[in-house]
Amino acid sequence: MDNLIDYQQLANQLDDEVAILKVEDRNCYQFMFLNDKAVKKNSLKNPINKTLQETLPGPEWEKIQGFYREAVSKEKPVVFIQYREKSVEETKLSLITSSKDGSKYILAVTKDVTKEKHLERKNRFLEDNDPITSLPNKSLLENRLAHSIHISKEKKSLTALLYIYVDGFQSVHDYLGHSSSVDQLLIEAIARINGCFEGHQTLARTGSQGFSLLISDIPQHETAVTCAKSIIKSLEEPFHYNEHTYHLTSSIGITYYDGSEETSVEELLKQAELAMYMVKRRYKNHYVVYKEEMQHMIQHQLTIGGDIQQALNEEDFFLEYQPIVDIKTNRIKSLETLVRWDHETIGTLYPVQFISLAEKTGLIVPLGEWVLRKACNQLMKWQEQGLTGFNITVNVSTVQLQKMENFYEKVQEILTDTGVSPENLELEITETIFMENIEALFVVVEKLSDLGIQISIDDFGTGHSSMNVLKYLPVNTIKIDQSFLRDKSDGAKNRAVIKSISGLAKDLQIKTVIEGIEDEDQLALALKEDCYLLQGNYFLPPSSVNDVTAYINKKTVIAN
């Protein structure tokens, strides 16, 4: 373009604000032209023939004059940003030299970049923060943890890292689906956690149900322990939202760094998370401080986990059975099937030592199928010996129901193959299973019940879904958790719970089993509350087929 007319014609076609200023000297720029959009913005103060310095407030002129000088002296475009009260503007300055007389002009093009800058800030924020809770994410936590490690090395001060796992939140999420209610519940849980400590510590969201709390420069180890106890207590309180009540608990792992030895961010994160897993596996709703031997225990478990498939292939698993006795008739109602593992180097392993690993690896599916088929075959052998009148009970894992889309069909297949009548099979399901994927699991359980299979709910009274289970499911039997018998410190309260559950079950025409009967006192308590279906070592501990067969004969169970 050879003259300013060309620039003016182009400027009027642009949506951006365009101004052309004549360069009088290095600090004086006179307005010569404004396009339509710039005129509209400056309609109350027409700047034509005025200098930029005259039209701008002093502070603003001081901020931008350097950009104009740079554009003239370097003869290349200069871009700068101005943050207004409600907008963000980007101005590009370009030097123009007139082909007619050599005069110099500044072409200033200003565009509104508010949306772009907002998106840019949002993206920068999301690089370091969780989008739902606005808490720091794992990346930002790692940066701050690295800084805290550095400070601890210099000052030999104490850093604590807590990994907080909110138990039950995923169950609520699965039940409600992703909704504002779920987000609100999460935010309220965070508010409670935040209320348990003071200062500039970092609470970060490091998983869908996991949070990490970094506490730097603390005076003593007890500070972190006190904080963990407060968090556990705060999350125990029921959550009320939209006329519903939700229950959450927490599992917390704690690790420390005192600056005396070399460590890394990754190592401390791993230690805190490992301690948390120890809580989930053993206690729940508790805290544990990391110890070095935990790593060896986990490694040992992983070794066992790797052996499960081989054990299935080589049939190293075996079954024991424990009777559920009807004390009124002195007959056996059912035999509960209990799986054991004859490990070649460790010896006999019990479910608590390998079931969770089988669930994590998915091997619970073939293991559960093996147990069901083996138990049904054994029931048929007893019936062929004339020993009838009792059922076989098989425990079903949550993961089995979730991962086996054809669970119902597989049970049908095993019953057909073994010849066991559906009425002689009881499937025992833990009460808390129904908070995992409530609708889908209800459908499966109803289909099994329609087939004639008995449904038993284990550990009843320990979860928060008890009433819903009885209200919506075709439950035949509930097993009152043995903790209500063993905890003698709250004897009166435990008796009240047993009485309440058994009374409710009676009204709903559901059988009640009390498990864990160990002595005469517990037997007397059960009978006092009119509970006559009992299970425990008082009658017979989990035993081999031969010992159970002898016990069946002792109870004079004969063919009809």
Give structural attributes.
about 550 residues, eight-stranded mixed beta barrel, five-stranded antiparallel beta sheet, 21 helices, elongated
Structure in words:
This protein has about 550 residues and is α/β, with parallel strands linked by helices. Helix content is about 45%, strand content about 25%. It contains 21 helices and 21 strands. It has an eight-stranded mixed beta barrel with strand order 13-14-16-17-18-19-20-21, surrounded by four helices. It has a five-stranded antiparallel β-sheet with strand order 2-1-5-4-3, with helices on both faces. Strand 18, helix 17 (about 465-470) and strand 19 form a beta-alpha-beta unit. Helix 13 runs parallel beside helix 15. The relative contact order is 0.06. The mean pLDDT is about 85.
* Strand proportion: 25-35%
The parts where pLDDT drops under 50 for at least 5 residues are none
Shape: elongated
Strand order of the largest sheet: 13-14-16-17-18-19-20-21
Euclidean distance between termini CA atoms: 110 Å
Note the total helix count. 21
Total count of strands: 21
Largest sheet: 8 strands, mixed, barrel
Percent of residues in helical segments? Answer: 40-55%
| Overall pLDDT | 83
Radius of gyration: 36 Å
The computed structural class is alpha/beta
Short description:
This protein is α/β, with parallel strands linked by helices and 560 residues long. Helix content is 46%, strand content 25%.
